[in-house]
DNA sequence: CGACGGGACGC
DNA sequence: CGACGGGACGC
């Protein structure tokens, strides 16, 4: 996408720039050094359309570093793969269970694990006439809602036309983002993990602007609560 | 601990 | 010609 190619400082490179589009559609795996691409394909293709599999290897010795990336077509597929496969063994010879996380976008520059806290909550723009009950009704078809709220003017109590919906699982929030009907009420909706990305995209700016987002939001020691408020 | 390759436009 | 913006919770 444009954001990615701008960040990489040059021409459009499909194989690289699609890696984080849509957001949260790539998983990062910690696996055995003896696990091959073919085993990954076999175990992860049930979760959806795989666009890329990559076992990271030493440039010279070609020995696996025991980590890998699998890119899916959809965020919900990546989330489900994480939910189902984290903590599992891929083969009978594995001595340790694998770890599966949603990969950080390449442009973020951060290597911290993406928390479920960020992946289960979405930010929605809705008609001001919506009550919290309306919001819940509208979004419960996508999964189990833990909590939802509407942002209101504290003085008048009137809705600002904005809200949050928290699901139990990341894959449910992803499905809400993917399937929510844009034409009937909900105007925009972001996974909170990608809110900054979406916001910049909406304004037509490249993301990140230089490295400032990465520095000020991610590498300054702040956590999700610092950045997004109490969750 | 455990984080980023390969390949290359498009009429 | 006639598209479009706005925008963040609260124990």
Question: Could you explain the architecture of this structure?
Answer:
By secondary structure, the protein is of the alpha+beta class. The strands form two sheets. It has a four-stranded antiparallel β-sheet, with helices on one face. The radius of gyration is 19 Å and the shape is elongated.
What order do the helices and strands come in, and which of them pair?
Blueprint: H1 2-7, H2 14-17, E1 26-30, H3 37-44, E2 50-57, E3 64-72, H4 75-85, E4 99-102, H5 116-119, E5 121-125, H6 132-139, E6 145-152, E7 159-167, H7 170-179, E8 188-191, H8 195-202, H9 212-218, H10 224-228
Antiparallel strand pairs: 1-3, 1-4, 2-3, 5-7, 5-8, 6-7
Helix pairs in contact: 4-7
The chain binds two DNA strands through α2, β1, β2, β3 and β6.
GO molecular function: RNA binding
Protein name: RBM45
Organism: Cervus elaphus hippelaphus
Core attributes:
alpha+beta, 231 residues, four-stranded antiparallel sheet, DNA-binding, disordered N terminus
How many angstroms does the end-to-end distance come to? 30 Å
Strand content: 15-25%
Spatial order of the strands forming the largest sheet:
2-3-1-4
The helix-and-strand class reads alpha+beta
Low-pLDDT segments, ≥5 res:
1-14, 200-231
Number of helices: 10
| Biggest sheet features | 4 strands, antiparallel
Shape: elongated
Mean pLDDT: 79
**Fraction of residues in helix:** 25-40%
* SSE sequence, one letter per element: HHEHEEHEHEHEEHEHHH
Work out the radius of gyration: 19 Å
Q: Care to count the β-strands?
A: 8
Organism: Cervus elaphus hippelaphus (European red deer)
Keywords: RNA-binding
GO molecular function: RNA binding
Domain RRM: 16-105, 120-220
């Amino acid at each position: 996408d444009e954001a990615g190619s701008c960040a990489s400082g040059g021409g459009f490179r499909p194989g690289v720039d699609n890696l984080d589009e849509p957001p949260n559609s790539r998983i990062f795996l910690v696996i055995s050094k003896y696990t091959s691409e073919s085993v990954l394909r076999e175990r992860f293709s049930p979760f959806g359309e795989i666009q890329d599999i990559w076992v990271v290897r030493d440039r010279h010795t070609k020995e696996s570093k025991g980590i890998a990336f699998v890119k899916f077509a959809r965020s919900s597929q990546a989330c489900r793969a994480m939910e189902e496969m984290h903590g599992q063994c891929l083969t009978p010879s594995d001595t340790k269970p694998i770890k599966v996380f949603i990969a950080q976008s390449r442009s973020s520059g951060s290597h911290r694990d993406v928390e479920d806290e960020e992946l289960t909550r979405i930010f929605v723009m809705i008609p001001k006439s919506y009550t919290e009950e309306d919001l819940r009704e509208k979004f419960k078809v996508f999964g189990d809602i833990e909590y939802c709220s509407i942002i209101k003017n504290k003085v008048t109590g009137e809705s600002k036309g904005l809200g949050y919906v928290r699901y139990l699982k990341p894959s449910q929030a992803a499905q809400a983002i993917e399937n929510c009907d844009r034409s009937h009420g909900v105007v925009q909706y972001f996974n909170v993990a990608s809110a900054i990305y979406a916001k910049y995209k909406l304004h037509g700016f490249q993301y990140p602007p230089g490295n400032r987002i990465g520095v000020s939001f991610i590498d300054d020691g702040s956590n999700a609560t610092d950045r997004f408020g109490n969750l």
